[in-house]
What we know:
It is a single chain. The chain is α+β, with helices and mostly antiparallel strands. It folds into two domains: 4-151, Roll (2,3-Dihydroxybiphenyl 1,2-Dioxygenase, domain 1), CATH 3.10.180.10; 164-283, Roll (2,3-Dihydroxybiphenyl 1,2-Dioxygenase, domain 1). Helix content is 20%, strand content 34%. Strands 1, 2, 3, 4, 5, 6, 7, 8, 11 and 12 form a ten-stranded mixed beta sheet that branches. The radius of gyration is 18 Å and the shape is globular.
Amino acid sequence: xxxxxxxxxxxxxxxxxxxxxxxxxxxxxxxxxxxxxxxxxxxxxxxxxxxxxxxxxxxxxxxxxxxxxxxxxxxxxxxxxxxxxxxxxxxxxxxxxxxxxxxxxxxxxxxxxxxxxxxxxxxxxxxxxxxxxxxxxxxxxxxxxxxxxxxxxxxxxxxxxxxxxxxxxxxxxxxxxxxxxxxxxxxxxxxxxxxxxxxxxxxxxxxxxxxxxxxxxxxxxxxxxxxxxxxxxxxxxxxxxxxxxxxxxxxxxxxxxxxxxxxxxxxxxxxxxxxxxxxxxxxxxxxxx
Length: 289
């Protein structure tokens, strides 16, 4: 069973995406460019995952990815090509090919990073995409392996004004759960922990939840924050973060004037204020004194 690695939020205006996430109380890294692919990003480091605000898509030199951006871009900013963990990409790719999946080639996703001491370093991350065809293209996931994790995760970028530390859940919407279950199960390497008419829930070894709900069931999940259907058959909708202090998180959002609602111990920011991603914040269990 895989853990969640990182989450790609594609944006048309990368320059505007950074202050948008700073308004949410995140420390957002400076712009970096994928040396081989051509796209650029701003990264938000958590303690075991990260959020990638991906832009400059017109400069993408990796043609399979460039061609497959169209339907996601047409629907506006939001989740696309989210990533699962891998320790060895080649056997993982071979196993998925043997199951009949359309795996792309292993490519470099390296980018230059400024380290805390001011020196420049470069990530050693490789990945491959496991493509789906339209109309389910926007549920494509991929695997990544990080040869230099210390260049991916380091202080001070893991300390956020909203006290976010980890990811609790990633939520998708689907118009046909049966059409998606085999793909997601093969990619995660396990059947869903929970299966019902309203949705599928996968639980990773770290305890994260990957949720796939029907569009109708989203109203139960998100209430007034349920995004309007945009014509895509399946798409990423929301992310829930675990924070060290919900009180500090609330204060950070109030300080930036970010609108939110709060119910049953969860703070929710609408998708329109988070680059197309419903963003929730929940208190992590407090460590005993």
